[in-house]
């Protein structure tokens, strides 16, 4: 019986200026991360599935207004919110994802329904919403997604769309977990880029780009500049390096981050391997992240 288990979560990477973080703000973020971590950890401790653990953790983060996913999602160019999410089961390589979905409280739950209730992997926009409604997923009014912070960020971005700085706060959320049976799972959810146009979709719902899980190797959830993560196929790259080059998780993550940097990509990832090792590398100023393992070691961090 495989009794090892572990979980890691992230609330996004990016330009997080240490000086803007008062002790009170840091505490708020740490509390939110701890709550999400506990939601997933509780399931694993009780012998539950890694798939349920990552879904529960991500749902907590989606419900929190601090992170760019679910309730705290950024505004797109039309002044609305279009959300992306994915989930993957490492034991079967089954995966489900949604892109550009609006009006649903928990995109990761919809992604899981896509995985379990359809023969497809990725549903988008109106079709994804129609499916979610058929499945009885919880709908919310547009103002549920309104937060003053995101509104101000959007207004600033509208005034100067060439200013990339507003984009550097990549607030995706995600979770990776290993359960007692040795099964790995990953889930990611995001509101995408502030003021994004043309139905832009990032790496989060792209299997192998921002989300990947395989029992033979690892589970990965990425956050950052989505276009670069898609082009580097980061999540799958980490898995491949373990499978084909026999690298350790640490080596594989370092190598993938190096490749990302070669094309000037910014961000980070969380990864967990089949032995419960955890890596949470990033090349931005900070990344909201937390992890816990079978030994009761809990880490909650924002900066280096």
Protein architecture, described:
By secondary structure, the chain is an alpha+beta fold. The protein has one domain: (Glycosyl)asparaginase (Glutamine Phosphoribosylpyrophosphate, subunit 1, domain 1, 4-Layer Sandwich), CATH 3.60.20.30. Helices cover 34% and strands 24% of the residues. It contains eight helices and 13 strands. The chain has helices spanning 23-45, 50-63, 107-117, 125-134, 148-159, 226-232, 234-244, 249-262, and strands at 6-14, 83-89, 94-101, 122-124, 169-170, 173-178, 184-190, 211-213, 218-224, 267-273, 278-279, 286-293, 298-301. Strands 1, 2, 3, 4, 5, 6, 7, 12 and 13 form a nine-stranded mixed beta sheet that branches. Strands 8-9-10-11 form a four-stranded antiparallel beta sheet. A hairpin with a 4-residue loop joins strand 8 and strand 9. The chain is globular, with a radius of gyration of 17 Å.
Question: How many strands in all?
Answer: 13
What would you give as the CATH superfamily? (Glycosyl)asparaginase
| Name of the CATH first level | Alpha Beta
Helix count, DSSP H or I runs of 4 or more residues: 8
Distance between the termini: 36 Å
């Amino acid at each position: 019986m495989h009794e090892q288990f572990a979980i890691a979560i992230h609330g996004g990477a990016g330009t997080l200026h240490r000086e803007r973080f008062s002790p009170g703000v840091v505490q708020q973020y740490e509390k939110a991360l701890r709550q999400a971590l506990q939601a997933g950890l509780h399931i694993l401790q009780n012998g539950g599935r890694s798939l349920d653990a990552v879904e529960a953790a991500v749902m907590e983060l989606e419900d929190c207004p601090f992170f760019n996913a679910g309730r705290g999602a950024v505004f797109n160019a039309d002044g609305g919110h279009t959300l992306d999410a994915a989930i993957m089961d490492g034991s079967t390589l089954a995966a489900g994802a949604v892109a550009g979905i609006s009006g649903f409280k928990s995109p990761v739950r919809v992604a899981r329904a896509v995985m379990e209730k359809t023969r497809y992997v990725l549903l988008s926009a109106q079709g994804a919403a129609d499916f979610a409604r058929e499945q009885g997923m919880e709908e919310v009014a547009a103002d549920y997604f309104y937060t003053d912070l995101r509104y101000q960020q959007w207004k600033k971005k509208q005034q100067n769309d060439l200013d990339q700085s507003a984009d550097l706060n990549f607030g995706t959320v995600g979770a990776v977990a290993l359960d007692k049976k040795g099964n790995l799972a990953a889930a990611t959810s995001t509101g995408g880029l502030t003021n994004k146009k043309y139905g832009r979709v990032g790496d989060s719902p792209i299997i192998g780009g921002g989300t990947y899980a395989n029992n033979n190797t690892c589970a990965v959830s990425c956050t950052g500049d989505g276009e670069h993560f898609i082009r580097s196929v980061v999540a799958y790259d980490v898995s491949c390096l373990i499978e084909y080059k026999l690298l350790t998780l640490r080596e594989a993550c370092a190598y993938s981050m190096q490749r990302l940097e070669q094309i000037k990509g910014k961000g980070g990832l969380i990864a967990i391997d089949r032995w419960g090792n955890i890596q949470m590398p990033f090349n931005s100023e900070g990344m909201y992240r937390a992890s816990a393992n079978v030994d009761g070691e809990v880490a909650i961090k924002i900066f280096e």
